[in-house]
UniProtKB/TrEMBL annotation:
Keywords: Isomerase, Magnesium, Metal-binding, Phosphoprotein. Residues 8-133, 152-251, 259-365 form the Alpha-D-phosphohexomutase alpha/beta/alpha domain. This is Phosphomannomutase/phosphoglucomutase. It comes from the Bacteria. Pfam families: PGM_PMM_I, PGM_PMM_II, PGM_PMM_III, PGM_PMM_IV. One of its GO terms (molecular function) is intramolecular phosphotransferase activity. The gene is manB. The lineage of its organism: Bacteria, Bacillati, Actinomycetota, Actinomycetes, Pseudonocardiales. Its cofactor is Mg(2+). Belongs to the phosphohexose mutase family.
Length: 449
């Protein structure tokens, strides 16, 4: 029996190749997944990591051993795999470790129509099946076919966001040697957008910088390039290109919350009165702007399984997270960084102001960004923070996801435990930077004791 507890996460499977994740494990997961979804075929895609093709092949062997066919779409971004799952109405598996270092790999799974598979929706069952031992093979093996869906993916994005009649734009794009280097050329072909490529060479060793634009140090090259060439904007993608980060013409980062608000307004223009999902760490500006434009803002926990579930329950047209994941009803409620990027560029190209001025309307408050603290006892530290604030006049506390505290001056913070590390994650928003700093210092004094 192999213990998979270290690699089966809340939303996916991820581990060190050769030590935690190898062909044997991938084959077992493929067999268990085929049993779980019980359909005629599974679609498989993989990123540019050196280990990805071999792991995908082993997984496919496990699937076909259960008498289920495989459609192999080859090199793909995660949102391209979701597209394939939706378009073909088949469950899917994407081999990627997203922004993790080169020694890692992983598997993101979905049911037909890109419906998520997480701990509570199949991952726990898959883990149990693999740990119990090899599954008996079917009498007749399934077949493997290949299908290139890159052109179909690009065409579908163009159906959802029309850039053909916008003013010409020049953008710098940092693919971080990840899958955007494969998808961006196809998506932007024929559009009035001059793309200045950075690190488009597919290389799972990430020789230039980590493919994690959430870390400011990985945006430095893009910011410099935007200023150097006088670009209208810069876009950076993570390793599997399901998240996009934007910088304006000055090289300044655009907050994901501001992008959430902008895309929400664009979607509400198409469908007035629609519901928009936002997680509880997005800026307060998001629900305010949604309501001002006639939409219905719905707050949810952090994490794609919660976002997608609430979208399904409410019929929401769009959802956004502070981590730069953007979900679209018309993209099978899956997240697509590329689709969000196209929305930003369309909004920019439909008017004549620079991006910094366009986005100013969606940025109302100061924020801390995520601040992590290593603690010995997450529960005790959270309780200490709650006790420090809960009794104050005008203070509101809720525990939908961690601890959220709202203060009378409009400031608020959320403190959440990490699921995988002994960390507490703090996010603060306030009317101005001084108020953010003061609240940060007060909360951290309690957290770090």
């Amino acid at each position: 029996m192999r213990d998979l507890s270290a690699i089966v996460k809340a939303y996916d499977i991820r581990g060190v190749v050769g030590e935690q994740l190898d062909a044997e494990v991938a084959r077992g997961i493929g067999a268990a997944f085929a049993r779980l979804v019980d359909g005629p075929a599974v679609v498989i895609g993989h990123d540019m990591r050196e280990s990805s093709p071999g792991l995908a092949e082993a997984f496919a062997d496990g699937v076909t051993g259960q008498g289920v066919d495989v459609v192999n779409i080859g090199l793909a971004s995660t949102d391209m795999l979701y597209f394939a799952s939706g378009r073909l109405d088949r469950p899917g598996a994407m081999f990627t470790a997203s922004h993790n270092p080169a020694r890692y790999n992983g598997i993101k799974l979905c049911r037909a129509g890109a419906a998520p598979v997480g701990q509570d929706s199949g991952l726990a069952e898959i883990r149990a099946s693999v740990e119990e031992g090899a599954l008996a093979e079917a009498g007749t093996k399934g077949s493997v076919s290949t299908r290139n869906m890159l052109a179909e993916y690009a065409a579908y994005l163009h159906e959802l966001v029309d850039l053909k009649n916008t003013r010409p734009l020049k953008i710098a794009v940092d693919a971080g040697n990840g899958m955007a280097g494969h998808t961006v050329p196809a998506v932007f072909e024929g559009l009035p957008v001059e793309v200045v490529p950075m690190y488009f060479e597919l290389d799972g060793t990430f020789p230039n910088h980590e493919a994690n634009p959430l870390d400011p140090k990985n945006l430095v090259d893009l910011q410099a390039k935007v200023r150097e060439i006088g670009a209208d904007a810069g876009v950076a993608f993570d390793g599997d290109a399901d998240r996009c980060f934007v910088v304006d013409e000055k090289g300044d980062p655009v907050a994901p919350s501001a992008i959430t608000a902008l895309v929400a307004v664009r979607e509400l223009a198409k469908e007035p009165g629609a519901t928009i999902i936002h997680n509880l760490i997005t800026s307060k500006a998001v629900p305010e702007i949604v309501a001002e434009h006639g939409g219905k803002p719905v707050r949810t926990r952090v994490g794609h399984s919660f976002i997608k579930a609430r979208m399904a329950e409410t019929g929401a047209i769009f959802g956004g997270e502070h981590s730069a994941h953007y979900y679209f009803r018309d993209f099978w409620r899956a997240d697509s960084g590329m689709l969000a990027a196209l929305h930003v560029l369309a909004a920019l190209g439909e008017q004549n102001r620079p991006l910094s001025e366009l986005m100013a309307a969606y940025s109302r408050y100061a924020a801390s960004g995520e601040i992590n603290s290593t603690v010995d006892d997450q529960v005790a530290r959270m309780l200490a923070v709650k006790d420090a604030f809960a009794g104050r006049e005008g203070v509101q506390v809720d525990e939908l996801d961690g601890l959220t505290v709202e203060l009378p001056d409009g400031s608020w913070f959320n403190l959440r435990p990490s699921n995988t590390e002994p960390l507490l994650r703090l996010n603060i928003e306030a009317p101005d930077a001084d108020a953010v700093a003061a609240l940060r210092d007060e909360v951290l004094a309690v957290v770090r004791g």
